[in-house]
Structures are given as structure tokens and as C-alpha cells.
């Protein structure tokens, strides 16, 4: 189900302030456009109501209907049911979670950020991925950050420590692990630095977009601040004690947010590893996962839109494995020869270099899912027609009928149905 969800997001469509719009919204597609918009609205209303309350639902619905709106426009559209202070407070919360975004211009307006709304529905998946790729400490860091949307590094670490604090000397070792994990998450681009969103900024300044470059944190100051919190007892009552000053802000206490693109790239890598395990076996899936993990931690072309990861050497792959499989070279050969193009080899020193061609794998997965749908709707005859057209491209009706080894009555019954259904 998760794999189908991420593949569906790659369909040729775009999200706008009015819902889902296809490039050629005509005929049957126009009806489907309205159906998808209604589904998005109902689903996201449910998510917003559970996380932020009815006020957030009303504000986002106003943006969905009107597009970019100002604070006065929102107040006017709600007929004065909520005061401007309550609206501003709700906008601050939505900005912190990147549910909405600031629209630059002469008039200060706000619009829906569909990436932020989609992230709400994927938080459990993202947390599970962080546990798999970075360990339990990463999950402890991500959960409070998802809960607050945007937070300072010192506050994230304190909230993460409170999740597993035992009130003993082990908390000091745990604090070191959390700081090291936070440094790794920022180095690999999973967390990005932004400007804090506070009540004085919501109506005056533009929300800063996350930087595409990796961020380096100061581990010494963060560890010192966290250990002071441990010494004070590590309780909720002491959470604000010994925090860095806000005015002037500490340069080392960065404000961090989750990087949606990197999280989606992790999700893609996990799907590819599962495909390798499904097509070969679990050992092949583990090898594929380790190779992608090396590319990810090295920050090598792992963006969600990358066509392929950069090359990983044979030596790097061996070092990443806890136990080297007895037939590692045989498994690599199986991955290289798989029809899904799970792995490609490039010439290099010490055993060659390997890349994962993301674009080719996604194409094969999309075709396979399309074949499953065609087989359900049009049975085996429709599946054979679909496969020949995918392989050969455009064919006339007569040429297609000659290529198919199926009864003529089945061909003439199925083909018009497939054309009518688009």
C-alpha cells in the first residue's frame, strides 16, 4: 500500500490551490479531477482537525477556495467568527508545521503548502524509516520535531532525552548519542536550518525556505546544554532552565525542520530494497538497502528527483555490511541482471562501482502496477494488448490484431472497452 501511494504521487499531475489538475483536463479526466479534489479536501480536513482543531480547518478551507489570502481576507471570509488574534495564532502554528506558506508581494498573503499537508499523513512512515536507517535515537529526535513542526536544536534534544530518561548516569551517555545522531541528521540533509517563526514575524516577514545545503551543528555547546539539563533532573519542570538566550539568538542553537525531500528519498530507497527482496531474497534486499544507505549518508545525489545515485565502490559496500554474505558477488550479479535494473555497474578500481538507477526502477514499477490494473479490468486479453503496445509503441488495429495470439472475438470485444476507458 505504501509503495502504491508513493508511485501514485509520481503520476503526471500537479497540486495547486484549487486541488489536483491534470495537464489536459478534458473528457473523463475532468470528472476525475473533481473527484480527486473532493477526496483531498475531506482527507486533509480530517488530518487538520485532529492535529490543529476546527479553526485551522476553516482557515485552510478559506485558502483552498480563494487561493492566496491576507489576514483581513481570512477574517472577512469567516464572517468575524474568530478574532484576528486567534487567526494569527493559528497561522503561526500552521507556518511552524509548513501547512501554509507565506506568499511574497506587496500585500502579505498566505497560501496552502500541499507538501506540508502530505507530510502529516506520512509521519508514521517517516519515523519508521528513520528508525531503520539511523536507529532509535533518530526516532526520539524526529517525533518531538514532528509534533512542534519547527524547533531549536537544544529544545529538540531535551524533548528527545525525556522520552527515554531514566534518571541515572545512563542519561549522560544517552545525551552524547542524541547529539551525535542530530549531527548526522543535519549533515545528511534530513534536518534543515530555517528562520524561527514567532508572533512578531507572522505578519511582518517572509518565512525562510530551507537551505539546500547541509547544515553543520556545534556539538560541544549542544552537549554542554543537554548535560546541564540532565544534571537538573531531566524533568518537564526544568525544561526551560539553562536554555540559550533568545535575544540575541545563539548562533549554535539552530532552528531545524524536517526535510521532506530527503524523507521521501528515504522512502523511495526503502521501496527499492523491498523490491529487491521480493524479486530475489532477503539477502539481496539487505545488500541493496546497505548500498543505498551508503549513498544516502554520503549525501550523494539522493534527492527525490535524482535519476540515479552516484557510484558506491565495492569496498564501501563490504564495509557497510555487518556480515559479508558467503556469495556476495553472486548476489550482485543477480541484482545487475534483474530485468528491473536494480543495479548498474561502472568501471572503477578495486572491484568496480555500482549505481542504483532510480528512474528506471520507478518506470518498471509503474508499468507493473499498470499491468496489474489492466489485468483486473480487462483480463489476460487486455494485458497482452497493453504489453505489446508498451513494447512496440503505436500500432494500427490490423497490425495489433496480427501480433496477438488470441481469438478474434476476444480482441474485438476487449480493445473498444480499453479505448473507451482511456
UniProtKB/TrEMBL annotation:
Keyword Protease: no
Gene Ontology MF, one: single-stranded DNA binding
Keyword Nucleus part of the UniProt annotation: yes
UniProt entry keywords in alphabetical sequence: DNA-directed RNA polymerase, Nucleus, Transcription
A Pfam family this chain is assigned to: WHD_POLR3C
Domain (DNA-directed RNA polymerase III subunit RPC3 winged-helix) ranges: 371-421
Any one annotated GO CC term: RNA polymerase III complex
Origin superkingdom: Eukaryota
Record's subcellular location: Nucleus
Assembly mode: Component of the RNA polymerase III (Pol III) complex consisting of 17 subunits.
Chain's role: DNA-dependent RNA polymerase catalyzes the transcription of DNA into RNA using the four ribonucleoside triphosphates as substrates. Specific core component of RNA polymerase III which synthesizes small RNAs, such as 5S rRNA and tRNAs.
Family: Belongs to the eukaryotic RPC3/POLR3C RNA polymerase subunit family.
Protein name: DNA-directed RNA polymerase III subunit RPC3
Native species: Schistocephalus solidus
Amino acid at each position: 500500500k505504501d509503495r502504491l501511494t508513493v508511485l501514485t504521487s509520481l503520476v503526471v499531475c500537479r497540486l495547486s490551490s484549487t486541488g489536483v489538475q491534470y495537464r489536459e483536463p478534458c473528457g473523463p479526466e475532468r470528472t476525475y479531477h473533481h473527484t480527486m479534489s473532493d477526496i483531498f479536501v475531506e482527507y486533509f480536513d480530517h488530518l487538520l482537525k485532529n492535529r490543529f482543531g476546527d479553526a485551522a480547518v476553516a482557515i485552510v478551507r478559506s485558502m483552498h477556495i480563494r487561493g492566496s489570502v491576507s489576514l483581513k481576507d481570512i477574517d472577512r471570509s469567516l464572517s468575524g467568527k474568530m478574532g484576528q488574534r486567534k487567526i494569527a495564532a493559528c497561522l503561526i502554528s500552521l507556518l511552524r508545521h509548513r501547512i501554509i506558506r507565506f506568499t511574497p508581494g506587496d500585500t502579505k498573503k498566505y497560501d496552502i503548502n500541499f507538501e506540508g499537508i502530505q507530510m502529516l499523513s506520512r509521519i508514521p512512515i517517516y519515523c519508521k524509516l528513520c528508525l531503520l536507517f539511523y536507529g532509535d535515537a533518530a526516532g526520539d529526535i524526529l517525533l518531538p520535531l514532528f509534533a512542534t513542526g519547527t524547533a531549536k536544536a537544544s529544545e529538540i534534544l531535551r524533548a528527545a532525552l525525556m522520552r527515554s530518561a531514566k534518571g541515572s548516569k545512563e542519561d549522560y551517555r544517552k545525551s552524547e548519542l542524541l547529539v551525535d545522531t542530530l549531527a548526522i541528521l543535519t549533515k545528511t540533509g534530513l534536518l534543515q536550518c530555517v528562520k524561527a517563526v514567532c508572533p512578531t514575524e507572522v505578519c511582518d516577514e517572509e518565512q525562510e525556505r530551507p537551505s539546500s545545503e547541509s547544515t553543520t551543528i556545534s556539538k560541544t555547546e549542544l552537549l554542554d546544554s543537554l548535560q546541564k539539563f540532565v544534571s537538573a533532573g531531566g524533568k518537564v519542570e526544568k525544561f526551560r532552565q539553562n536554555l540559550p538566550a533568545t535575544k540575541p539568538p545563539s548562533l549554535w542553537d539552530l532552528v531545524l525542520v524536517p526535510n521532506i525531500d530527503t524523507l521521501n528519498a528515504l522512502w523511495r530507497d526503502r521501496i527499492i530494497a523491498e523490491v529487491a527482496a521480493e524479486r530475489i531474497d532477503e539477502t539481496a534486499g539487505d545488500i541493496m538497502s546497505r548500498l543505498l544507505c551508503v549513498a544516502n549518508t554520503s549525501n550523494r545525489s539522493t534527492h527525490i528527483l535524482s535519476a540515479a545515485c552516484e557510484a558506491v565502490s565495492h569496498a564501501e559496500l563490504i564495509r557497510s555490511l555487518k556480515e559479508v554474505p558467503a556469495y556476495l558477488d553472486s548476489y550482485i550479479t543477480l541484482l545487475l541482471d534483474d530485468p528491473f535494473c536494480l543495479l548498474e555497474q561502472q568501471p572503477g578500481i578495486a572491484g568496480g562501482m555500482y549505481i542504483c538507477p532510480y528512474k528506471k526502477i520507478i518506470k518498471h514499477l509503474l508499468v507493473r502496477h499498470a499491468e496489474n490494473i489492466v489485468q483486473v479490468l480487462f483480463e489476460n486479453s487486455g494485458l497482452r494488448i497493453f504489453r505489446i503496445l508498451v513494447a512496440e509503441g503505436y500500432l494500427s488495429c490490423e497490425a495489433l490484431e496480427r501480433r496477438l495470439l488470441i481469438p478474434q472475438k476476444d480482441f474485438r470485444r476487449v480493445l473498444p472497452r480499453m479505448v473507451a476507458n482511456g
